């Protein structure tokens, strides 16, 4: 929760300090940074799953560093592409991409704690990481560093957070003895790549509108839309703890079906609360961000609905990663293609853009959730062993 609040504070203050003309560039670069976090999110899920299944921590960390090196190489190649597509400077594009390798290491250590059910230590790391990313960025903005300066400062904070997270994870796992008692079989990169395409589909679907607005709207409306997506992010990330806590159970065959049903139910309920809260709090938006953003206050509930729907989709896709049914991400990729096409072809107003985003997200989430729940009902349970007679005279037939 601390990390999420810090992130929202960063965006609100950036909207105020950069103004309605300059905020859309910062928001678009943040969307790129979110897409760059996809390998990191996949890493945490895969590491947690492998730790639940008894993988060696040494092998897991070796895989983390291999993936970080791959992400760094891809980030370098993407810098000129991002600069050209978003019409921003190369330095700003590099700032958005610069934190990606450190995020992979940070998330891998979080996965070690999550898979080992060390939720208190994990909460500490999450709060520390969110603060380390946001505080330097706020200082850079306050000193006039602009979007690029803020993103570079945040990247430096993430590097520091990754180092501290590693120290915390190692001390925690060494204390409970889990670091030395496992076999040292190698953990491959392929499972991470499969999870990456699932997370990539979700993050792209949740961020593509922030990129499209720079293309189809003028600077002022693009900034207004970008501010509205803060409500989307709040509704999306607010129930993050649900997936974090239930994911280890999703990865256990005997508990997976119940954990998936529980997760989707809780996420739906939190989503309803988030939408109602956004509708009630809408009149306060201009007070925090400025009068220039007043035209979108009546749409904040719709932005929150978008985030609430995506939160349910995230829960469903997490369960797919946990049980290695990652092919289900194809539905989300199709939804992304449809949404992007509709926005580029027809959406020329804020209302049309958010309406398209909500409609496509709702259909995509419904399809994925139905498939996941049906699969959960058909997942075989662990066989029940017959009771052994108290007398011990007879041996049960286990065949």
Structure description:
The structure is a single chain. It is built from 15 helices and no strands. 79% of the residues lie in helices and 0% in strands. The longest helix has 35 residues, at 2-36. Residues 180-184 and 382-399 have low confidence and may be disordered.
Task: Write the topology of this structure.
Layout: H1 2-36, H2 38-52, H3 57-86, H4 90-98, H5 100-115, H6 119-142, H7 146-175, H8 190-216, H9 219-237, H10 240-250, H11 256-281, H12 285-289, H13 300-322, H14 329-346, H15 350-378
Give the tags.
399 residues, mainly alpha
Oligomer: single chain
Query: What is the makeup of the main sheet?
Result: none
Strands, count: 0
Residue-averaged pLDDT: 84
Order of helices and strands: HHHHHHHHHHHHHHH
What is the helix content?
Answer: over 70%
Q: Give me the number of helical elements.
A: 15
Q: Radius of gyration in whole Å, from Cα?
A: 22 Å
Percent strand equals under 5%
- Are there runs of 5+ residues with pLDDT below 50, and where? 180-184, 382-399
Q: How would you classify the helix and strand content by structural class?
A: mainly alpha
